[in-house]
Design a protein that fits this description.
- There is one protein chain.
- The chain has helices at residues 40-48, 93-98, 106-119, 121-125, 136-148, 166-181, 193-197, 223-229; strands at residues 2-11, 14-24, 29-33, 55-60, 63-64, 78-81, 154-158, 185-190, 202-207, 210-216.
- With 230 residues, the chain is of the alpha/beta class.
- It folds into 2 domains: 1-77 and 153-230, Rossmann fold; 85-151, no CATH class.
- It has a 6-stranded mixed beta sheet with strand order 6-7-8-3-9-10, with helices on both faces. A 4-stranded antiparallel beta sheet has the order 2-1-4-5, covered by helices on one side.
- The chain starts with a strand and ends with a helix.
C-alpha cells in the first residue's frame, strides 16, 4: 500500500533522513523502532506533508504523495495520531474525536463515534468532559480515536505508547489489533520496542536517519535489538 523510496529530508544543515526506503503492505502493522532522534517522526511527518523532502518518493497505491498538497492528503484516507497527543484541551472529548471526521455528515459522525466508543468505553463515559482534564492515557485514546473517526485505510501512529501506564498500553494494543483485523494498514513509530513488537507484523530499526535492519517481528527480537533498543 505505502512505499517510500530513497527519501531524504533535511532541516537547514541537518539531514534527518538519508535515502530511506520502506514498504508497508496492505493490511499489516509495520513498526519503526529507534531512539529519540532516529528519524522516525521525520518520516511520518514527510508522509503527511508536514516537512519538505529533498529527494525521493512517497507512493500510496502507486500515487506519488509528494505531488499532493498536505491539506489534501487526508482525502487519501490517511489518519494521523501525533506524538504527544495534541488534543484540543478546551474542547470536549466528543468534539475532539469528531474533529477528525469533519468531512462526514452528522449521521456518519454519530455512527463513527458510537463505533469508537464501543472500542474505547472511556469515550462514552467522558464524552462531554474537556479533553484537557484527561489523563495522558485517556488523551492518547482521544488522539487515536480522532485519527480513526473518518475511517482511514492507512493509520499513522507516532509514539502511541510513550509515557503511558500498562493498562493504557494494553487497551491501545488491543485496538491496533482490531484495526488490522478490519483491514486498516498501520504504520507506527515507537521507542518502547517490547510492547510494540507484540502488535506489529514487521518492522524497521532506525538510527541517525537511516535503516539499520528490517524484517519480520521474530527477526527483530534478536539479541542485537535487545542490546541496542530495549
Amino acid at each position: 500500500m505505502l512505499e517510500v523510496r530513497d527519501l531524504t529530508v533535511q532541516y537547514g544543515g541537518i539531514q534527518a533522513l538519508n535515502r530511506i526506503s520502506i514498504t508497508v503492505p496492505a493490511g499489516e502493522t509495520v513498526i519503526l523502532i529507534g531512539a529519540n532522534g532516529a528519524g522516525k517522526s521525520s518520516l511520518i511527518n514527510a508522509i503527511i506533508g508536514m516537512v519538505p523532502i529533498r529527494s525521493g518518493q512517497i507512493l500510496l497505491d502507486g500515487k506519488d504523495l509528494t505531488q499532493v498538497h498536505a491539506a489534501d492528503r487526508a482525502a487519501c484516507r490517511i489518519g494521523y495520531s501525533p506524538e504527544g497527543r495534541r488534543v484540543f484541551p478546551t474542547m470536549t472529548v466528543q468534539d475532539n474525536v469528531l474533529a477528525g471526521a469533519a468531512r462526514l455528515g452528522r449521521a456518519e459522525q454519530a455512527r463513527a463515534y458510537e463505533r469508537l466508543a464501543g472500542m474505547f468505553p472511556m469515550l462514552a463515559q467522558r464524552a462531554g468532559d474537556l479533553a484537557g482534564l484527561l489523563s495522558g492515557g485517556q488523551q492518547q485514546v482521544v488522539a487515536i480515536a480522532r485519527a480513526m473517526s473518518a475511517g482511514p485505510r492507512l493509520l499513522l501512529l507516532d509514539e502511541p505508547f510513550l509515557g503511558l501506564a500498562p493498562v493504557w498500553i494494553r487497551q491501545i494494543s488491543d485496538a491496533i489489533r482490531q484495526f488490522r483485523a478490519e483491514g486498516v494498514t498501520v504504520l507506527m513509530t515507537e521507542q518502547m520496542a517490547l510492547p510494540a513488537l507484540k502488535v506489529a507484523t514487521r518492522g524497521y530499526v532506525m538510527r541517525g536517519g537511516v535503516v539499520l535492519r528490517q524484517g519480520g517481528i521474530e527477526e527483530l527480537r534478536g539479541a542485537a535489538l535487545a542490546e541496542e533498543y530495549l
